[in-house]
Amino acid sequence: MARRRRLICPSDALRDGGDGVRFQLLRGGACEEAFVIRFDGRVHAFVNRCAHVPTELDWLPGRFFEADGRFLICATHGALYDPATGECRGGPCHGGRLEAVPVRERDGAVWLLE
Question: pTM, whole model, 2 decimals?
Answer without folding.
Answer: 0.94
